[in-house]
Amino acid sequence: MTDAVEGCVLTPEGWVAGRVLHAEGRIAAVEGRALAPGEPPPPPYVVPGFVDLHVHGGGGADAMEGEPAVRRLARFHARHGTTALAPTTVTAPPAEIASALAGIEAVRRDSREGEARVLGAHLEGPFISPERLGAQPPFAIAPDADLARAWLALCRIVVVTLAPELPGAEALIAALSQAGCRVQIGHSLASAEAAEAALRSGACGFTHLFNAMSGLDHRRPGVAAAALAYGESAEIIADLRHVAPAMIRAAARAVPRLHAVTDAISAAGMPDGAYRLGSHRVEKRGETVTMPDGATLAGSVLTMDRALENLVGIGLPLERAVAMTSTRPAEHVGRQDIGRIAPGCRADLVTLGARLAVEAVLVGGRAVPDAGR
């Protein structure tokens, strides 16, 4: 049976006032009138489901806690329009990382109704600089290609964050790239020259641009400068706390395939109080999460629907904001079947109202209960 979602549909060719037809979890067709150039699209808007490649938790669940927690965070973020995600680990002892990866893989292999689809894991550490941990627990180790291969045997890993200045990083980048992982530079003190060399060796992006990395000094440029000068892709936390609006706009002009992430932790969607980030206890106060020092940001409580609102709020066109929250992250991990509304793609769809609030979410053509709550 063919079902339809009606509204103003954002396709790769532009807006279409009409409807999306879908059957058996796939988009069958888009019907309607193509809007003329410059014609404002009327709500409701039908856009591709959001894709979050950096998300530690949400709804009280932490990806390090195993399969039930991964399912819980996948359900929480699905209600906010995220239809595909990469549950993200933190730096921890290797046995704990292996356990977390096994839980992520279990959900990836057996997706259930109401959950965002799990694309694979984002391994954030432990191959990062101990001097740029940010809110990561203190378990950084030197790059180890054999250990990484063992983890790859446990779980599909789609993104890996590492510090390229560490001994052994070049060999690890090569091994991970050969395995199909997208290697991102982050939690790093590398010089711009070292970061550029890592890009030549197979790295292809930057993790939470501007945060936990060497910066933009005009005489001693670091990783952030390399991202702006040489990067084709980078992720950025679009909560307007980790990165100021002007810097998001600057990055959007400089990095062709900049995409948004949440970096959300278990506190997302939860009351103020203490929560877990790996072995750390962190504090949520309002829309900010910090380490016990009250100053160091410890992930976020962002959801992707709010990220979209923030990007539009700082002046980006809705079409570009959707590209940053849906299409570009999907393409970054080589997925052409999600992040866009076109025949043959998965029926992962979000309907937004006039103020961009989520009204409905479909994952594989199935409605997510309590969407927008």
TrEMBL record:
Substrate binds at A135, N211, A212, R219, H242, L297, A298, G299. GO terms for molecular function: metal ion binding; N-acetylglucosamine-6-phosphate deacetylase activity. Residues 45-368 form the Amidohydrolase-related domain. The keyword Hydrolase applies. It comes from the Bacteria. The keyword Metal-binding applies. Its cofactor is a divalent metal cation. Keywords: Carbohydrate metabolism, Hydrolase, Metal-binding. The active site is at D263. GO terms for biological process: N-acetylglucosamine catabolic process. InterPro entries: Amidohydro-rel, GlcNAc_6-P_deAcase, Metal-dep_hydrolase_composite, Metal_Hydrolase. Zn(2+) binds at E124, H187, H208. Gene3D superfamilies: Metal-dependent hydrolases (3.20.20.140), Urease, subunit C, domain 1 (2.30.40.10). Binds 1 divalent metal cation per subunit. Belongs to the metallo-dependent hydrolases superfamily. NagA family. This is N-acetylglucosamine-6-phosphate deacetylase. It comes from Propylenella binzhouense.
